[in-house]
Every structure is written in C-alpha cells, then in structure tokens.
Amino acid sequence: MKINGAQMVCEAIIAEGVKTVFGYPGGAIMNVYDEIYKQDGFEHILNRHEQASVHAADGYARATGEVGVAMVTSGPGFTNAVTGLATAYMDSIPLVVISGQVPLAFIGTDGFQEIDAVGISRPCTKHNYLVRELSDLPRILKEAFYIARSGRPGPVLVDIPKDITAEFGEFIYPTEVEIPTYKPSCKGNNRQIKKAVEAILEAKKPLLYIGGGTVLSNASVDVKEFAKITQIPAVETLMARGVMGHSNPLLLGMLGMHGNYSSNMAMSETDLVISLGARFDDRVTGKLSEFAKYAKVIHVDIDPANIGKLVDVDYPIVGDIKNVVESLIAQIKDRVDTAKYEDWRNILDNYNNLHPQSYQDSDEIIKPQWAIERIGKLVGEDAIITSDVGQHQMWAAQHYPFDRARQWINSGGLGTMGFGFPAALGAKKGCPEKTVINITGDGSILMNMQELVTASEYKIPVINLILNNNYLGMVRQWQTFFYEKRYSSTDLSYQPNFKALAESCGGIGYDVTTKEEFDNAIKDAIKQDRVAFINVSINRLENVLPMVPAGGALYNMILEHKD
Amino acid sequence: MENIRRVISVIVMNESSVLARVTALFAGRGYNINSLTVAPIPDSNFSHITISTKGDKRTIEQITKQLHKLIPVLKVTEHDEMVEKEMVLVKFSANESLADISALCGAYNGGIVNVGPDIVITMVADEPVRIKHYLEAIKRFSPVEVVRGGVVAIER
Ligand SMILES: Cc1ncc(C[n+]2csc(CCOP(=O)(O)OP(=O)(O)O)c2C)c(N)n1
Ligand SMILES: [Mg+2]
Q1: For the residues A145-152, what does the mean pLDDT come to?
Q2: How confident is the model at residue A562 (pLDDT cuts 50, 70, 90)?
Q3: Spacing of C-alpha A486 from chain mean position
Q4: Does one domain contain both A264 and A140?
Q5: What's domain B4-80's superfamily in CATH?
C-alpha cells in the first residue's frame, strides 16, 4: 500500500516507540499535522513556542534515556527551534527534530518562510538532512533515530519539503541501518585498559572525575561499583550530579567554578585523574595549566575528539563508559589494595571538615540554599529536578541530595535560560509517576512562561519553584565581585504578579515569604493536578560560594564574601 | 606550540552539502585552510578532498578527529610519506619570449598549452616548494594572470 510522506513520518515515530511528540504547526508542516490528527500511536503536545517544544523533547530524552522528538514548521518555526537544538547538542542529548520546508521547487527562491535550515543548524546538530526524494525518506528517518542515540548522542534535524510530505510512495521502514561512514566504537581497546589498570594500581592519590557521559551511557551502577571496589574518591561535574548518590562516602561533591572546597582541592592534588565521560570544560577546569597539575590522566570517552582536546592524556580509552568500566572492574577487582588510598581519603576528609559546603541560615528571610535542602527533605529521591540558569541552578546542584542519575536535568553546556520549565514538561510526560520540580529564577522563568498554558491544557502538573531575588542574580554576583557593583541591567524589581500569572493560565500560584509557608506550598502543590508557580522571596544579595573566578586556578576559591 | 603545515585527505560520501560540512567545520572552529581541492573518486560513491592546512600539533589532531566525526566522512589521512603536487595555469603576453617561457615551464613539468594572437597559456605541475620557486621565476615575464589548482596528494 502506498502512503504519503507525512504518514511515513508518523509511522516512523510509532515504530521507534516514541509516546509523546512536542511541536507547533505551520504551513510547511501541515501535511504531517494532518496525519497526526488521524493517528493514535503517539500523543502530540502543542507547546506555545517552538523553543519550548525542543526543550520539552530534550527533557523527555534526559529523563527517560530515549530519543525525544519535536516537530516545527519552516522559517520562523525552525529558527525558534535553534536554541533548543544547540542546548541539546552541547549536552549530547538524543533528539530527532522534524521541520517542514518550502516545496522543492521554491528552495533557493527566498520563498515565503524559506530559511536554510540545514545550513543554520549544521554547527548545532550531530547531523542533519534535507530530504530531496520521497524514496529516501524511510531510510533518512531510520538513520536519524540511529545517529541521534548511538555513539556520542546528539540532536538530528530532518528538514522535509512540503511536496515530499504530500507525495505517495511505498513505505517499508528499514530494520537495519547501513551507513558505511559511521561506525561508532563502543568497546575500549583492551591494551589501553590494561595500562590504565596498572596506572591505577600504582597511583597514591587517584581521583574519579565523573562527567555527563556517565549518565548518557547509563553507567551509574558500574561507576559506583568501581568506586566501591577500589575505594577511590570521586568528584562529579554539574552534568553528573546524582551518579554516585549524595550519601556515598566516596563522593566529595561537585568540582569546578562553584564546586566545593574538597572537590577542587582533590583535583588540584591528585596524581591520577580517571576521567569518565567528562570533557574538561572551562567551567570545570579553571586555569588549564594549573588543573590537575600533578596528575597523569586516564580519559575514557566515546568521542575520540574529546580526548586530548584540552589536556594531554596519558591513557586514552575510546569507548562507551559502561563497557569500559565493566572491563576495568573485571581486571582490577582481585588486585586492588584499598588501604593504599587511605591516606589520600583522609587528606580529603580533612579538607571537607575544614571547609564543608555550607551557608548562613536566617530566621528573617528564606535562604535559597535552605529552600533547596528543604525540598530535598520533602521529596528527595521521588522527584526529578529540572533547572534554569543562574544562581538558583548552582545552589540546586550544590545542595540538593541527588540520589540517582537522570534525576537532575539542566542545561550545562549552553546554559540556556528558559530551559527548565519546558524540560520539566517533557520529563513529566516521560516519567509521569515522578514529582517534577523546576528550580528556577525570576529572570529565567519568564523566558518560557507561555508554557503555563501548555501545562494546563494537557494537565501536566509540574512545580516551578521560583527563587526570587529580584535580580538576574548570577550576573549581579559577577557585577558585585568584578565590576564594582555597577548593577547594569540586572535589577528585576519590576515584577509580574507570579501567583496571578499562574492562575490566569489555569495553574495555581503561591507567594511564600516564611519557612512555614514554604512547606505548606510545596506539600499543597504536590497534591494538585495543576501546574504551579511557587514564588519564594529570598534575600536579594546572596552569592553562590565557593567561587573560582573565571580563568583562575581551582585551588584559589573565594570561600567567603564580606561587604 | 609550533605551527606545522599538513596535508590532509578526506574521503567523503558523494552527497549534497558534504563540502559545506567540511568547510563550515574549519570556519566554525577557527582552523586554517591554505588550499582545498575536491573531485569524485572514479567508479565509487565517494569523493576525495585534499586540504592543505597549518596549525600546532593539538590543532592538527583536532582537525582530523573533528573531520572524522562528520557522518559522511569515511576516512581521514594526515599525510606523512606522500607524493604531493600542485598545478598552475599562467597567462603571459605573446610579446614575451616564448622560448624562455617554454624552457622555464619545462623545468617544472609543464609547458605551453595554448597560444592565441595576444597571449600564451602555460601549465606546470610540481611540488609545492618548487611551485613557489616557479611563481618567483615567472615574475620577470610579467604574467597577466595566475591560477593555482591547490595541492593534491597521495600517500606513498
Ligand atoms: C538565554 C540566556 N540569556 C542570558 C543568559 C546570561 N545569564 C546567565 S545567568 C543569568 C541570570 C539569571 O537570572 P535568574 O533566572 O533570576 O536566576 P538567578 O541567578 O537570579 O538565580 C543570565 C542573564 C543566559 N544564560 N541565557
Ligand atoms: Mg533572579
């Protein structure tokens, strides 16, 4: 039987097992929307902005580990989606984004809503396609899903001209992918792994440096096992929060610009960095020449281009983290002497006692760190926490008791304000049994607040916890520290009525100024089947500490700031 | 780190926009292109791109790794032991001494390939260093136009 290109798109989505698609229609994609209307293999969520559709698909992917799918029209629909693609690209999140394009004959004529989508998205997708013939469409769709999820994952764009979605042809969805030029390697080289094992056995102060690749590779259990067997201490990057579990005695905390003291000191003093799916981002390393200065480096990554990109690596291992860590465990478990690293662990314990992650609580006003610890106590393991970008994001990363991988969802690489709310919608669609809380700021939340309507229409009851400091707080903090308090365009004293805003869109709002109100609001919001805004007044000038000034050495942390 | 010159061969699938992917990678990541040539490989679905570039060791390594990450790229070779040639077409006024020009081109594996009423056209093909010398040497004949073909290379 012959079907049209639009139906092929739907059939492929169903065949890939995608349950929810996020999108927004328009002229060039209308054929596909017509087929979406007729089918019942997946649900379509109409976000109120294409950026939100892509972030929602992204949140779905991060929470479930499956490929997220978003659909947009040509021209402005596509350009609105670009921030979403770039966000997913920087954090290696598997997405397939389908965009409509003007009919083939109009391409290159500056037709209405024509824009060069493959040209614009080239640097922010893992791969992209402009479909030129209907007969290519089934193969391209199959490849798109395969490329998105295999190797180092990433977003793939499929741009489909309108006449191709209208055309009829034979449809057989391929079962196999045959791309002669794309063969990602998963198993690490055994010789290299052997050498790495010897290096670990020889080291006195080894350190596990755990990155987001560990989450992507679903290797949390294996990494914990490796740490347990070897008793090697560990630090997590922003993207890896939750991998070790907060109560794990071997976990020092998060390292980097807002890492805690013992984590950053551990990295500064280690003699062997065991990097698992981390990429030595400048927000993690600080001044490169001082980073892990005394250490040899084992670098395990599925992407060979990550290895040796920024630091010299002594033991490069290209492979999937889960695979490689399994081999490491097998080869080291009968040989390791855990007592050997005991002095090292003691040194780090002392560092932790010297400057634990802490803050000054208050009886007058809610401190953001308290708020985060409190949600941790109230919902803890049961929640998925998404976040926007700013101080609130860093406090969440520092203070929330994350217990498992995929519990913490944030835009680490691109740092996209406006990510948290739509990502929360996607996470909730993917994991409906979980409480989903977006920890956000009074600046960030406004960047996708139209999603209140989406959340209400589709009854996606996520909670937005607005840590309201009446500032673009993170930028304000830099102005305090480095620009002599010239608060240029960071004062957000002019505010919407957040409670009324939520309620005008069918949600529920809470204004919170005391700890008691805070508890009541959270407990009440969890019981609601409506989207919530909890507007929490926090002290305006709280800073995120410790802080390593950009470009500084990790061991030079600002631990305290006195006015 | 010290800058080195490198010639890199990239075997790519023949499909639309694959050249754009390669050049956009260089532009986007700030890598340098001295010359770039591309042509289909006979009896195959692949094309051969030859890129001559400059950079420090880490940059060159990144170039090959990043190229390899592009989905339609089959193979990336950073040439070491290679035969390397560049072709150059030059137009001279017919008033210059044709015998001298012909002899010069002969020394660089070429000769006169076209003669018109007012101009002559020459072609040479040689190693990049020698091409540099050739381009110096022809100056005395006041060349009207010079077209360089870019480097092609084959591993020995
Ligand atoms: C789309 C976007 N624009 C600008 C920035 C730069 N930026 C980083 S943090 C920040 C302030 C965020 O303010 P808010 O959401 O209130 O969070 P706070 O830092 O106050 O907790 C800004 C403007 C960004 N990361 N993303
Ligand atoms: Mg704020």
Answers
A1: 98
A2: confident
A3: 32
A4: no
A5: ACT domain (3.30.70.260)
Give the position of tokens 């990155």.
A211
CB A423 within 8 A of CB A59: yes
Task: Point out the residue among A123, A127, A130 whose CB comes nearest to the CB of B28.
Answer: A123
Most B CBs within 10 A among A181, A302, A306, hence the mutation to make, goes to A181
Q: Do domains B4-80 and B83-155 have the same CATH topology?
A: yes
Q: Which atom of ligand 1 is nearest to the CA of A392?
A: 21
B23 and A CB contact within 8 Å: no
Backbone dihedral region of A432: left (phi > 0), alpha (psi from -120 to 50 degrees) or beta?
Answer: alpha
Spacing, Cα A492 to ligand 2 middle (Å)? 7
Q: How many residues does chain A have?
A: 563
**Buried/exposed B86-106: b ≥16 CB within 10 Å, e otherwise:** bbbbbbbeeebeeeebeebbe
Q: For A440-486, write each residue's pLDDT tens digit.
A: 999 999 999 999 999 999 999 999 999 999 999 999 999 999 999 99
In this complex, do A305 and B28 lie within 8 Å of one another by their Cβ atoms? no
Answer yes or no: are the C-beta atoms of A413 and A306 closer than 8 Å.
no
Instruction: Say yes or no for a CB contact (<8 Å) between B62 and A309.
Output: yes
CATH number at residue A492: 3.40.50.970
Inter-residue contact A126 to A153 (CB < 8 Å):
yes
In total, the C-beta contacts within 8 angstroms joining chain A to chain B are 36
The residues pairing with A98 across neighbouring beta strands, listed in sequence order, are: A71, A158
Shared domain for A196 and A329, answered yes or no, is yes
- Looking at the fold, whether A350 and A493 belong to one and the same domain comes out as no
**Other beta carbons within 10 Å of A151:** 20
pLDDT confidence of A380, banded at 50, 70, 90? confident
Residue of B nearest to A184 (CA): B69
A147 and A209 share one domain: no
Q: Domain for residue A359, yes or no?
A: no
Q: Does B1 touch chain A (CB under 8 A)?
A: no
Is A417's C-beta closer than 6 angstroms to any atom of ligand 1? yes
**Looking up tokens 């094992």, which residue turns up?**
A197
What's the CATH fold of domain B83-155? Answer: Alpha-Beta Plaits (3.30.70)
